[in-house]
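User: I'm writing a short report section on ligand binding and want a predicted complex to refer to. Could you take this sequence and adenosine-5'-diphosphate and write out the structure as tokens? A short remark afterwards would be nice.
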Amino acid sequence: MDITLVQGDITEQRVDAVVNAANSSLMGGGGVDGAIHRAGGPEILRECRRLRETTHPDGLAAGDAVATTAGEMPATWVIHTVGPVYSTTEDRSHILASCYRRSLEVAAELNASSVAFPAVSAGVYGWPMESAAEIAVRSVRESSITLGEVRFVLFSAEAYEAFARALGQSTGPFP
Ligand code: ADP
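Assistant: Sure. The structure tokens for the complex follow:
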């Protein structure tokens, strides 16, 4: 399985599935969630509403994942996952790890061979980027699911560098 890094916008990725750092309501929000709904158009929210009316009346629990169409984005599916809000008093790493594991399981059920992840929980939910990157990389490496490509798509240079360090890649001038 190829694990790749890109600095850019996840909504523009040509992969089978893009992962959304959603919230439990599945009704949209800010950050990457807002960007995905804007780029994919109203069909994503329609499918999210349908999930709330059928299989997910109470919304999606933190650490779980569920798929919808990607609407007008180049990807075919959005896999919505809900990251934990960062806490200084409680270790919620296992919930963040579960986001990656469950998203890969859903991707495998869809027969997706390429999946793009953002840095789940590392925005509004406050997870320190260095730690978010380590948990993301470890969870994907330790997953029993292997796809063709898992791509981490990082918005900022700082986030990209944190993920590169977590992957064991050098980003400095010396190889
Ligand atoms: P959370 O609520 O799980 O913290 P956010 O959407 O606030 O989710 O942030 C998660 C990460 O996604 C942050 O590092 C943020 O900079 C990044 N992000 C925001 N928009 C995009 C985008 N269009 N593509 C890729 N990453 C994005």
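A remark for your report: Residues 9-11, 21, 31-33, 35, 83, 118-125, 153, 155, 159 surround adenosine-5'-diphosphate (CB under 6 Å). Helices lie at 31-40, 42-53, 93-109, 129-142, 157-167.
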